[in-house]
């Protein structure tokens, strides 16, 4: 069976886990704290980043969330998440990259560093100014999501895709860390509320990062 090295608030691992859930691919979670720089993990991925998937029997090691998602898109003929015409597939990849790059840089990463790493690893107080900037950026990103969903049923078009999975992964981490203000974002909130009820997503909402509790509404689809 596949082993997936991850920690609960890694948005890139969450994207992979949602995809594996949609495709009904079995795997075993291995808790990995990348900041510990464990020798065995660095042997798998010298960059020291999650996610990493390992199939020990086949000697297969997959690194990088997009590479992992593409691998299972190519090898599992179920619940295609990069689908449609060439133009639509390009849009799916564009938006997936948007969330993995811009949203992560502006929102997920500063929240993780200030509210998780500083608290659990460095034992430091968070930078309040950086947190305010991340939450302000989150509002801008939700505005963009509202715009997309005002013109489409899902992020990239008529059907659910990897773009939705990436968005849900990053938003769920930011929401866990108290960085999302949902007021005034009708379309984004309705989309995320529906996403919370998906079978592939429920296990992530139930998982906790030791030492950090999410807001009370975090798991509730009717928030």
Topology (elements, then pairings):
Layout: E1 2-6, H1 11-22, E2 27-31, H2 39-44, E3 52-55, E4 60-63, H3 65-75, H4 86-122, H5 128-151, H6 162-176, H7 186-196, H8 202-206
Parallel strand pairs: 1-2
Antiparallel strand pairs: 1-3, 3-4
Helix pairs in contact: 1-3, 1-6, 4-5, 4-6, 5-7
Characterise the protein shown here:
A 4-stranded mixed β-sheet has the order 2-1-3-4, with helices on one face. It contains 8 helices and 4 strands, in the order E-H-E-H-E-E-H-H-H-H-H-H. With 223 residues, the protein is α+β, with helices and mostly antiparallel strands.
Keywords:
223 residues, alpha+beta, four-stranded mixed sheet, 8 helices, 4 strands, 8% strand
Summarize model confidence as the mean pLDDT.
Answer: 96
Q: Categorize the overall geometry.
A: globular
Reading the helices and strands in chain order gives: EHEHEEHHHHHH
Proportion of β residues? 5-15%
Helix content: 40-55%
The major pleated sheet works out as: 4 strands, mixed
